[in-house]
Amino acid sequence: MTQAQIDRINALAKKARTPQGLTPEETAERDALRQAYVASVRANLAGQLDNTYIVGLDGARRRLTRKDP
Q1: Which of 15, 16, 56, 57 is the most exposed place for a label (fewest CB within 10 A)?
Q2: How far is CA 10 from CA 19, 20, 50, 67, in A?
Q3: pLDDT attached to residue 68
Q4: What is the DSSP secondary structure assignment for residue 42, as one 8-state letter?
């Protein structure tokens, strides 16, 4: 996600709070940008957790395991 996309999300959010609101095209654009943002945050978190280790009392390091929902 680029900074320009984040700025556009913020601009649409600000416009949505005005009395004129958003057009249907802007609402669809906002929804698509929000979905892309959430996917980006989830991917970043998954990458961070993939590189996280648990250190036991004996000093042994082990990776976190994934739990499927």
Answers
A1: 57
A2: 17, 16, 30, 34
A3: 77
A4: H
CB neighbour list of residue 40: distance below 8 Å, 6 or more residues apart: 1
Q: How confident is the model at residue 15 (pLDDT cuts 50, 70, 90)?
A: very high
Interval 23-48: pLDDT, tens: 999 999 999 999 999 999 999 999 99
Q: Enumerate the β-bridge partners of residue 53.
A: 63
Q: Are 55 and 46 in contact (CB under 8 A)?
A: no
**Shortest CA distance to 26 belongs to which of 14, 38, 36?**
14
The whole-angstrom separation of Cα 57 and Cα 8 is 48
